Amino acid sequence: MNLSIALFLSLLSVEGVSAPVAGSGVNPVPGISFASESFSLGKIQSGSFKKFQFDFKNTGNAVLIINEIKASCGCTEATPSQKEIPPGAGGAIKVTFDSHGFQGQVKKEIQVWTNDPRHPETELKFDAQVLPTLLVEPKNIDYGTLSIKTARPKDVIRYISFKDMMKSGTRVLTVQTDLPFLRVRIVKVQRNETIIKAELVSPRDFRGDFQGLVKILSDSKLYPVLLVLVQGRIKD
């Protein structure tokens, strides 16, 4: 028998020494498990800040590390309750959503990167139905093509409705426009609604397409200025 082989076998026979078995060693690894990866805020008012969180647990046998968190929108702030979570312990991704400027159905995502080798990246989702605090209708007034010779009163007059959806007592302070031949004024105030009249007056020195804005200034802290686009065309 080869001397080197004999020496190897004799070493294996020494008391307390045995050959290693493949797969017998287990390396400690972390594991992240969220209670839920989605969250619904339901109906919220535009301009409000909503705070909530995604709870999770370290199901592994090594320290879980939150490497990075990135939200899909600047309107969302997401931070971990702690960056290092021991085995068996829990944590949370704390979220603040700023609904200012949003209206209708909103869906957002948050990416979370950890040192979990099986799930290094997790996508969290949340949604909300954002209700308007103030509602202006219409948001766009199109006079179409108007003839100076044949235009009738109903062709040059439009009405804008300003509604306080929260019934908070918000008032319209004044209305303005940058179009020299458009006159805007408040004609009616009732409970939580203000009616504004927009009327084209004496555009006889103007021909062609026009576009401008009606500015509605209120005492709202969230939306002190709301805009309505006005456009059309004047011909002979």
Taking strands numbered 1, 2, ... along the chain, how are they ordered across the largest sheet? 2-9-8-4-6
Tell me how many strands there are. 17
Low-confidence stretches: 3-25
Structural classification: mainly beta
Write down the oligomeric state: single chain
State the end-to-end CA separation: 116 Å
Give me the CATH superfamily of the largest domain: Immunoglobulins
CATH topology of the largest domain: Immunoglobulin-like
Run of helices and strands: HEEEEEEEEEEEHEEEEEE
The number of distinct structural domains comes to 2
Major pleated sheet = 5 strands, mixed
* Radius of gyration, taken over Cα atoms and rounded to an integer in Å: 33 Å
β-sheet strand percentage = over 45%
Backbone shape: elongated
Overview features:
236 residues, mainly beta, Immunoglobulin-like, 5-stranded mixed β-sheet, 4-stranded antiparallel β-sheet, 2 helices, 17 strands, 6% helix, disordered N terminus
Write the layout of secondary structure elements.
Blueprint: H1 3-12, E1 32-34, E2 38-45, E3 49-58, E4 64-71, E5 76-80, E6 84-85, E7 90-98, E8 104-114, E9 121-131, E10 134-137, E11 140-147, H2 153-156, E12 157-164, E13 172-177, E14 182-190, E15 193-200, E16 208-218, E17 225-235
Parallel strand pairs: 2-9, 11-17
Antiparallel strand pairs: 1-3, 3-7, 4-6, 4-8, 5-7, 8-9, 10-12, 12-15, 13-16, 14-15, 16-17
